[in-house]
Amino acid sequence: MKTAVIYYSYEGSCALVADILKTELSADIFRIETLDDKKRKGISLMFWGGGQVFRGIKPPLKPLSVDINAYDLIVFGTPVWAGSPTPAIASFLSKNNITGKKIALFCCHGGGKGKALDKLKALLGGNTFIGEIDFIAPKKMDSVALKQKIGEWAKTLINTNKPN
């Protein structure tokens, strides 16, 4: 089973989870990045990010070379902005026709995932979803506990994806 982890990370939480998943799943890893690399913090980030979500903005992305067809399982990761996956993820998915794949999803948030995973599933219609998980402030979690949580989830993805 060939696996890819494709994620967007603004403040590093999803990058942390994706990096551990890469090891646990022996996966290739791809980071989605926007052309706008200005770092916003606090209330400025909330207004900017939430505004993008509410206006349906799909920001331009830096080139990312990934052959979706080469993978059996694709794990997507996103922060949660205004109860939704980030606009960068929406932008990536709008430019890549992904169907007929096994998909797993994770999101990182500071206290509420909202409908982010349901909205991400809607963007990825035509696929088979084999797992989802959310992480509350993974950068603040005990590293051993975080790795254990990710490792246990990775095992369920591997077991779900084994041929009969």
Give an overview in words.
- This protein is of the alpha/beta class and 164 residues long.
- It has one domain: 3-Layer(aba) Sandwich (Rossmann fold).
- The chain is 38% helix and 24% strand.
- The chain has five helices and six strands; from the N terminus they run βαβαββαβαβα.
- Helix 1 (13-25) crosses helix 5 (143-160).
- The mean pLDDT is 90.
What tags apply to this protein structure?
164 residues, alpha/beta, Rossmann fold, six-stranded mixed β-sheet, 24% strand, globular
Write the layout of secondary structure elements.
Blueprint: E1 3-8, H1 13-25, E2 28-32, H2 42-55, E3 73-81, E4 84-85, H3 87-95, E5 102-109, H4 116-123, E6 128-136, H5 143-160
Parallel strand pairs: 1-2, 1-3, 3-5, 5-6
Antiparallel strand pairs: 3-4
Helix pairs in contact: 1-5
Q: How do you describe this structure in short?
A:
By secondary structure, this protein is α/β, with parallel strands linked by helices.
